[in-house]
Amino acid sequence: MKLSQYAKKIGVTYRTAWIWYRDGKIKGYQMPTGTVVITEDERRAPNDKVAIYARVSSSEPTSNLNTQADRLVAYCAAKGWQISQVITEIGSGVDDSRHQLLKLLADTSMTVIVIEHKDRLTRFGFNYISTLLASQGRRVEVVNLTGNSKEDLLGDLTSIIYAFCARLYGQRRAKRKTEQITRQLEENDHATG
Fold this sequence. Notes:
The chain is of the alpha/beta class. The chain contains seven helices and six strands, in the order H-H-E-E-E-H-E-H-E-H-H-E-H. The strands form two sheets. Strands 4-3-5-6 form a four-stranded parallel sheet, with helices on both faces. It has a two-stranded antiparallel ribbon with strand order 1-2. It is elongated.
């Protein structure tokens, strides 16, 4: 089958499938016309290392975290995937310093990251992360592609307002601290001069 058909069948972008072909992770050949034909019919590349990432916000019950991870394990088992890691984390989807997620994204040996919803990975910028991973021959598998409910959208808005308020407060404190240090330096300069 053509590389484009193969990519569509297994749910990855054409670019990701091309990288896999180029790196020898999937078998095929290139015709004189330039068309790439894949000769293997597998659901995933043979060298995939699968990681599950489950996240809940701090306002959700932690029991939801375990059941989310269990659903993802069952999903991977149904697809016949061997799981290398199960990562769970409690934190806001707006927070860009979640340590477990950053560690997972930095681990280039993990070629597939399985999540339940896009917002479990990040509230904003999902396509940026997905594109960057694809450029490394990696991908995100989203189990449930349904849209956000009103409650989720209101939760996003609240998270954004909270995050910006925290940053603004921190900036004001930093500005006051800088002004205080500057005054002390000026006073010391006048006292010695």
